[in-house]
Specification:
The complex is a heterodimer of chains A (about 450) and B (about 260).
Chain A (H helix, E strand, L loop, with lengths): L5 H12 L6 H18 L14 H5 L13 H5 L9 E6 L2 E3 L11 E5 H7 L1 H7 L10 H8 L4 E6 L9 E7 L5 E11 L4 E10 L5 E11 L4 E9 L5 E10 L4 E8 L4 E10 L5 E10 L4 E10 L5 E10 L4 E10 L7 E10 L5 E10 L5 E9 L3 H8 L5 H18 L4 H14 L11
Parallel strand pairs in A: 1-5, 4-6, 5-7, 6-8, 7-9, 8-10, 9-11, 10-12, 11-13, 12-14, 13-15, 14-16, 15-17, 16-18, 17-19
Antiparallel strand pairs in A: 1-2, 3-4
Chain B lengths: L6 E12 L2 E12 L3 E5 L6 H9 L5 E9 L2 E2 L5 H6 L2 E4 L6 E5 H15 L7 H14 L10 E2 L5 H15 L3 E5 L7 H14 L5 E6 L3 H5 L4 E6 L2 E6 L1 H10 L12
Parallel strand pairs in B: 3-10, 3-11, 6-9, 9-10
Antiparallel strand pairs in B: 1-2, 1-4, 4-5, 7-8, 11-12
The chains are: A alpha/beta (about 450), B alpha/beta (about 260).
Chain lengths: ~450, ~260
């Protein structure tokens, strides 16, 4: 590894690559400005309160280079994806939209636009479409994505449109050498629209890329989006993501995060319930086994009156795994009559595993109901003894109880194929998995 | 009392500590096949410690003495091995385990035992038929099968579930820890019928109880009084009735027998 700091390497990569990225002067200017702000402020580090549990050195191990990999065989990509009948596939290869791998014919009201093509065709439109990241430490990786912005996908669902089958957004890492890939995703849910978005993160073979996703979702009035997210990278791949969600009046947003793969995941969710009666339910499960690290941040802002959020997160750390859940809920003065609840339950399966959980509530108005709870513990000895007293050996009893710990969160995942994949992944990393076959 | 049956459990001079407290202090007990023994005693006399130690509950230190099960050193066996070898503990406080399906646990328990004995696993159809019959005999609703283990069960349902598991697993030695506590009279009858149905020449049952009312329905061959960590008096069924009349105070160590 070179002695240069990550920021120095980012600058060098930018100097080498930026002229090849399209979009003319407008985009060159935007990228350059983003790089300037990034260089000035640096990547987040331990001193930033929402980043203190992350192993920053590990991020620095990835080369900040964006040479595209060779185009993979479609069969090798398809083999990694889940069979979801009639789903509308949208495939990103290292952050770039792949038309050949994506579903060509889409139903009326669902539009998928290649951002790379849009940047070439209409740089100004693309410029106003992509959110400009702010200056906070939590937005720094979005700034990095902006500095290299070149591709990604825009998914638009027309007002009033109900898309019956799920939109399957696959993020595929292909590069064999450590590299960083930027992806942009913009989802626009028109007023009254309704659909399911399934994001699936996979890596081909031993792909050792760091994917950096900057994404945004706007829920129009009265829309309903069910957002499933399954991280299933290989052991060498890493992911940093910054999701920015805005919910208008009476919209309903549901997220199921299943962080079950990769060497490192840092996931930021910045969600604002802007309109009255917007509701949101966030379910999350992470599993940090081996040497893995999972670090989740949710920042929820209640702005509209009578808005509601329910967050339920479960974390499991085994071996030398490390996990963190940082959940901040802010209820603004305008959010009268709102409800917010947050639970973070965590399970440590080995003495060297570590989970840090940090719920934070900031309430600026009376007449709201907020509660939060966080626990971190080991398996219950009484439960273990009960199962063993019925003849199950200790390893099987432990596996079964670990599986039970996350079963309700997995059980609420609305797509059977995703639910089953998550169950198999959780069961698959448990010791003595064959012993609990049949429970799964 | 006949000495014909095979010796199933023999406890000799058992001394057990939990933390720095001495709980069993030289307890001896012999239980033969075909017998039902009742162990009675005041709160804190060591009744639950006895069943816990015999079933392998962690947290106790055996200081001295022995417990043999069918001639083998019971205390050296892992809890799951004791279960597979035919020992069953009906818990005083059965735990709720959300997320672990009842039916899965029953199947895993039964198959663990069958595998240990070199028997083939039951297929799904045989297994379900067997479980349904057991549920019906304990007057339990079939919907309980697909709930988490004891999850949301009433106190009575939990106790009936223990007896149902016992009848499914057909143990050689059944230890029932205060199975009668917290039951209303109807549930007590169902549980007692379940226990009586398990009486068999090849099986031994040890009932641990505070009150004698269960013994109106399940008539024991022997009654022992546990006090101060040891058996202070043994007798027949009439001893239980005497305890009901006189309480336990006259039997406490250091109290002169009246």
């Amino acid at each position: 590894m070179s002695a240069a700091s990550p920021i120095e390497r980012i600058s060098a990569a930018h100097a080498r690559l930026a002229h090849r990225l399209g979009g003319g002067a407008a985009w060159a200017g935007r990228r350059h400005a983003a790089l300037g702000r990034l260089v000035e402020r640096g990547l987040p580090d331990r001193r930033d309160e929402n980043w203190k549990y992350l192993d920053h050195a590990r991020i620095g191990e990835y080369a900040f280079d964006a040479e595209p990999a060779a185009r993979p065989e479609p069969a090798s990509v398809n083999a990694r994806l889940l069979g979801i009948p009639a789903a509308h596939r949208v495939v990103l290869l290292d952050g770039r939209f792949s038309a050949p791998l994506s579903t060509p014919a889409l139903p009326a009201g669902l539009e998928v636009i290649d951002i790379a093509a849009l940047i070439e065709r209409d740089p100004e439109a693309a410029n106003s479409l992509l959110r400009a990241p702010g200056d906070s430490a939590d937005d720094r990786f979005a700034l990095l994505a902006d500095a290299f912005a070149a591709g990604g996908v825009l998914i638009r669902v027309a007002p009033g449109c109900e898309v019956a089958e799920p939109v399957y957004l696959a993020h595929v890492a292909t590069a064999g050498s450590p590299a960083i890939h930027q992806a942009r995703v913009v989802v626009d849910a028109g007023a009254g629209s309704r659909f399911t978005l399934f994001e699936h993160f996979v890596a081909l073979g031993e792909a050792a890329a760091l994917g950096n996703l900057a994404a945004e979702l706007a829920l129009g009035e009265g829309s309903a989006v069910s957002h499933l997210r399954l991280h299933q990278h290989g052991p060498a791949a890493a992911q940093v993501e910054t999701w920015f969600v805005r919910a208008a009046a009476r919209s309903r947003y549901e997220q199921h995060l299943l962080a079950l793969g990769g060497r490192l995941l840092r996931s930021n969710l910045d969600l604002v319930l802007e309109g009255a009666h917007a509701t949101c339910r966030l379910d999350g499960l992470f599993l940090a086994d081996g040497e893995r690290q999972v670090d989740l941040l949710t920042k929820i802002t209640h702005r509209g009156a009578a808005t509601e959020t329910v967050q339920e997160y479960r974390g499991i750390a085994a071996a030398r795994g490390r996990g963190a859940f940082n959940g901040r809920v802010t209820v603004e003065a305008s959010a009268r009559g709102s409800n917010a609840s947050q639970t973070s339950r965590n399970l440590l399966l080995s003495p060297l595993a570590e989970i840090n959980t940090r719920p934070q509530l900031e309430i600026n108005v009376d007449d709201v109901q907020c509660r939060h709870g966080a626990t971190t513990g080991t398996l219950d000895d009484d439960h273990l003894f009960y199962l063993r007293s019925r003849g199950l050996d200790e390893a099987a009893a432990r596996a079964l109880l670990t599986f039970a710990f996350c079963r309700d969160v997995i059980g609420r995942v609305p797509l059977a194929a995703v639910r089953e994949a998550a169950e198999a992944l959780v069961a698959g990393v448990l010791p003595d998995r064959e012993l609990i076959r049949g429970a799964v | 009392m006949s000495d014909d049956g095979q010796l199933i459990l023999e406890v000799r001079d058992l001394v057990v500590r939990a933390g720095d407290r001495l709980i069993l202090d030289g307890l001896s007990l012999a239980v033969r096949a075909g017998e039902v023994h009742a162990i009675m005693g005041p709160n804190g006399s060591g009744k639950s410690t006895l069943t816990g130690v015999l079933a392998g509950r962690p947290g106790f230190e055996v200081v001295s003495g022995s417990a043999t099960y069918l001639g083998r050193d019971l205390l050296a066996m892992a809890p799951e091995l004791r279960a597979r070898e035919g020992l069953f503990l009906a818990f005083q406080y059965p735990v709720e385990i959300p997320g672990v399906n009842n039916v899965y646990l029953l199947k895993a328990a039964l198959n663990a035992q069958r595998k240990h004995r070199g028997l083939p696993e039951l297929d799904a159809f045989e297994f379900l038929n067997l479980v349904r019959a057991k549920l019906a005999s304990m007057r339990m609703d079939e919907t309980l099968l697909n709930r988490g283990v004891n999850e949301g069960f009433s106190g009575g349902e939990k106790k009936r579930n223990e007896i149902m598991q016992m009848s499914l697993l057909e143990p050689t030695l059944a230890l029932l820890d205060e199975t009668d506590s917290g039951l209303d009279i109807d549930a007590l009858k169902v549980v007692a019928e379940g226990v009586n149905a398990m009486r068999a020449p090849s099986r031994a049952i040890v009932l641990v109880t505070h009150y004698q009312r269960l013994l109106d329905h399940v008539v024991p061959d022997q009654v022992h009084v546990l006090a101060g960590g040891r058996i202070v008096k043994s007798g027949g069924r009439e001893l239980a009735l005497e305890l009901e009349r006189r309480g336990y105070d006259w039997l406490r160590p250091g109290t002169a027998a009246a």
